[in-house]
Amino acid sequence: MEDSNIIALFFTRNEDAIKHTDETYGRRLYHLAESIVKNGQDAEESVSDTYMKAWDTIPPQRPQHFFAYLAKICRNFALKKLDWKKAAKRNVEVISLTEEMELCIPDQSRDREIEARELGMILDRFLRTLTPENQMVFLRRYWYADTIAEIAARYGISESAVLMRLNRTRTKLGTYLKKEGINV
After folding, report:
1. Domain extents for the chain?
2. Cβ neighbours around 156 below 10 Å, total
3. pLDDT of 10 higher than 90
4. Which residues are CB-neighbours of 123 under 8 A, at least 6 positions away?
């Protein structure tokens, strides 16, 4: 079913909206959540919470990019669940991803000048400067939290090639942010 039709079901408060959303995007949302929480039941809960949040926010929201809207919600639920379950003992993979990105993106708690939305727009512009392949490698790692091995298998390249692309992209991102006036 088309996204616009599913969104129309949400607007008419038709419960079939959830069913069609699950049929269309359930598997992708589950994979996203599972790659973060590493637990099937927690991933299912995150996806279920995503549907509930979508039900509560559409209307008044009318997302232009429905899957991106759902993925953002799902990712946030999965990260919250991970924080809650692991509290002091965070997942090593997520810590590693955070540390890698801290080298490029300023800590927002220290530098409140840049709003999260503005930083998002800058990151979006940066991603558009990359080749489609490098965009996807970057997003698979830092948005979907795929492992290096999963990215290598997905794109048929070696793990060292993935690491090299990510390192170069982070360096480019740091340079890009400085050019935009953001001190890293």
Report:
1. 3-86, 92-179
2. 7
3. yes
4. 173
Q: Which residue has the tokens 């559409």?
A: 58
Angstrom distance (rounded) from CA 2 to CA 11: 15
Token readout for 165 is 């692309």
Distance from C-alpha of 78 to C-alpha of 144, rounded to nearest angstrom: 11
Pick the CATH number of 3-86 from 1.10.1740.10, 1.20.1250.20, 3.40.50.1100, 1.20.120.80: 1.10.1740.10
Q: What Rg, from alpha-carbon coordinates, does the chain have?
A: 18
Structure tokens, 131: 């080749």
- pTM of the entire structure? 0.62
Instruction: Supply angle C-alpha 151, 157, 161, rounded to 5.
Output: 90
Q: From 3.30.559.10, 3.30.390.50, 1.10.10.10, 3.30.70.270, which CATH number describes the 92-179 domain?
A: 1.10.10.10
Q: If pLDDT is split at 50, 70 and 90, which confidence band does 115 have? A: low
Local confidence band at 103 (pLDDT 50, 70, 90 cut-offs) = low
Q: What token pair was written down for 77?
A: 């639920």
Query: H-helix or E-strand containing 15?
Result: none
